[in-house]
UniProtKB/TrEMBL annotation:
Protein name: Aspartokinase
Pathway annotation: Amino-acid biosynthesis; L-threonine biosynthesis; L-threonine from L-aspartate: step 1/5; Amino-acid biosynthesis; L-lysine biosynthesis via DAP pathway; (S)-tetrahydrodipicolinate from L-aspartate: step 1/4; Amino-acid biosynthesis; L-methionine biosynthesis via de novo pathway; L-homoserine from L-aspartate: step 1/3
Enzyme Commission (EC) number: 2.7.2.4
GO MF term list: aspartate kinase activity; ATP binding
InterPro entries, per the entry: AceGlu_kinase-like_sf (IPR036393), ACT-like_dom_sf (IPR045865), ACT_Aspartokinase (IPR054352), ACT_dom (IPR002912), AKii-LysC-BS (IPR041740), Asp/Glu/Uridylate_kinase (IPR001048), Asp_kin_monofn (IPR005260), Asp_kinase (IPR001341)
Function: Catalyzes the phosphorylation of the beta-carboxyl group of aspartic acid with ATP to yield 4-phospho-L-aspartate, which is involved in the branched biosynthetic pathway leading to the biosynthesis of amino acids threonine, isoleucine and methionine.
CC terms in the record's Gene Ontology section: cytosol
Reaction equation(s) it catalyzes: L-aspartate + ATP = 4-phospho-L-aspartate + ADP
Binding annotation for ATP: K7, Y8, G9, G10, T172, D173, Y178, R183
Amino acid sequence: MPILVQKYGGTSVGSIDRIKNVAQRIIEKKLEGNKMVVVVSAMAKTTDQLLDIAYQLSKRPPKRELDMLLSTGEQTSIALLSIALNELGHEAISFTGPQVGIKTTGIHTKSRISEIDGTRIQNALNEDKIVIVAGFQGINENDDITTLGRGGSDTTAVALAASLNAECQIFTDVDGIYSVDPRLYPKAKKLDTICYEEMLEMASLGAGVMHTRAIELGEKYNVPIYVSSSINNKKGTMIKESDNMMEGPAITGMAINNDEAMISLNHVPHNIEFIASIFDALAKKSINIDMISQTSPKNNQVSISFTLPKEDLLEGKEILNSYIHQYPEIHLTVHKEITKLSVVGIGMRSQSGVAAQMFMLLAEENIPIHMVTTSEIKISYVIQPEDQQKAIQKIAETFDL
Ligand code: ADP
Ligand code: ASP
Ligand code: MG
């Protein structure tokens, strides 16, 4: 019998009725002849609420304790789903990440799955049980519970599918991957397929529909990932290898990120070792710097701007302050509200002029650009949040997204 790994996100298990609906869908697939492994997230808003309580108690809760706390959200939903399935007459058993040998590595709240020992899952499947696994969590080398970063249940599902050699289906509150987040641009088009490379860029640039690491694992272990709705049965999107379409459009999608902040440092001495040491200190704390721009030296000074996740802003600022106090002339400014808008497409490899066209479109709309970065298949712009909707509309219409 084939193994099918399904994952249901927070909204999909957000109420008693939703849990019952998910249980029915699982039973349907089991009756079609699949061995079922189901990953679930915490019920809608639970993770946010837990975080909120922690931050009311402390501005800086220890990350180990945050992991201990956040992992309880998933522990609740797996038990509830298992109860619902058993009630419907289908034997199910729930497991936390540590119970099924999901080993993790790296720092708390941002850890990565290093290996999975699937024995316990296989044993339960052999007993004809439906296996429910808590997403987003595992256990590290110190036997402590860790979490995989926000949205990490997708990664649990793909990692399990890879280790069990199974098919992977992700069910969420949209019926697939759209060219643009449909909440921001309701006219966006649903994509039948998208290749790993493009989806990886979209996810890492802010399309929150999939966890970035899930796509990395999908690509690495060649697990096609089917994304669709947990509510209706509309055809979803398959994330898979590129089929090398020769004449695809230049741009496949657009991603918007409002979760980053920008820090600017002015009057920085033009001392490469000093500048490198700042970025090194940030990297050592796993603060992921995304875009960087630096002006050319003037009077032996430069200005540097970079973006970082908002959640790392406090820690990032502290690190910077500890470095720059030796140079009182350095001036630090924080731009907490920025929009990073990116366009993504493997078609850009063979079609030139997209960057030029984007500059032109933003200029026509009088939208100031604060930073730009490009890679082979993406272009990102930092703009002001108040220009976001205007920019999305103009770009989506021009590129028929
Ligand atoms: P889940 O709780 O099921 O993991 P998420 O909230 O993490 O769900 O992801 C689903 C949401 O992702 C959608 O509601 C949608 O607003 C958002 N989203 C962002 N970009 C896209 C996109 N390109 N296509 C589809 N949904 C997107
Ligand atoms: N519950 C976690 C979160 O809200 C993980 C997930 O939903 O994938 O980020
Ligand atoms: Mg998610």
